Amino acid sequence: MSQRLFARLNALSGLFGVIILITSFIINPGPPQAHPTAEQLTAFGQAHYTQITAGAWMQAVGTVLCIVFAVAIVHLDGATARFAGWMTLYGGTLLVTTSLVEVGFYLTATTGVYPNIALISLDFIHAIQRLYFIVTSAAIFLPLGIVILGGRSLPKALGYAALLLAAAFTALGLIGLFTQVQTVDDIVGSVQGVWWFAATIALLIRAGRFSATRIETFATPATQPAGV
Prior knowledge:
Elements: H1 3-27, H2 38-47, H3 49-76, H4 83-111, H5 117-149, H6 156-175, H7 182-206
């Protein structure tokens, strides 16, 4: 596979991933009551079963595709042997794991047969969502931003934006331990989606700059650019 084709395919992977991820947040409704009873939550889950399960599937697949895109950036920038590259892989693993655990509780909330399982699942979902701000989002954006700044695949502005997102998520994670800032959380979460979208479009535009010669996609790159 040529480096150019590899860039285009992974940009499309990330683009498709962020589109279905954003769609999952739109179609997956939250309970209308702040503190629903078990009966209300069960009824809500039954009434919106298709939306919740489809949204859960989209969240799982979309997150994986976005991280595939991030790993591709590490590969294209020759950072697979650099610390920032390894930490991007580690951060991506944390983010996917957190997302899949959250998705699992969406499924137990709608298909669980034990009493109060929906209420328990909802509590776990809220707790897991806080992890995105406490550690998992920063764990991917910080090293990925460093990789971008040390490479040529994406504009440096996206690297700096990734570092700012990592700082914002970390700050909100700490603040969220003591007070709720849901509106700000939602804004930062939305900006994250804009970042992924902008990054995939940027790689699609820049794909023509890459070499048309064959690259080893499952081997260590022959050359490593300078950087962290």
